[in-house]
Write a structure and sequence with these properties.
The chain is α+β, with helices and mostly antiparallel strands and 136 residues long. The chain has a single domain, classed as Immunoglobulin-like (Sandwich). It is globular, with a radius of gyration of 16 Å. The termini are far apart.
Length: 136
């Protein structure tokens, strides 16, 4: 029973640390595999900001064991109003898992209007479909 309590406490501390990092950073993402209901670690994610007709790369990251990147926006920078694109490199992830997919990448374009301090973009993923929404 003590071992279970220590494991639960460790999970709570890790979760609390992720929430603290997310609170300090204006953008986080999370990828869940709908096929098995598990997180998707090892998905590369690219963040870009739109500048006229062009996109400027701001940052890249890799999802952790929980399928999360708690701090995707460049560290120490304030989120500017504008249009952003988060691209999940799903084709590479599925290839590593010997799974065919229809979507080699999933771009999510969103508008940050500064009405909230933190944006969270979850991606619910399967080989032949996906869904996303503005989380919190």
């Amino acid at each position: 029973m003590k071992k279970l309590a220590y494991l639960m406490a460790g999970t709570l501390l890790a979760t609390t640390a992720n929430f603290a990092m997310a609170a300090d950073n204006p953008l986080s993402v999370h990828v869940l595999n709908l096929e098995n209901g598990l997180p998707s670690p090892g998905v590369e994610v690219v963040l870009e900001q739109q500048n006229g007709d062009n996109w400027t790369k701001l940052n890249t990251g890799m999802t952790n064991e929980q399928g999360r990147i708690p701090a995707l926006y460049p560290e120490g920078k304030k989120l500017e109003q504008g249009v952003y694109r988060v691209t999940f490199e799903t084709g590479d992830w599925f290839k590593k898992h010997d799974t065919a997919t229809f979507f080699p990448e999933v771009p999510v374009i969103f508008s940050a209007d500064a009405s909230v301090e933190h944006y969270h973009i979850p991606l619910l993923l399967s080989p032949y479909g996906f869904s996303t929404y503005r989380g919190n």
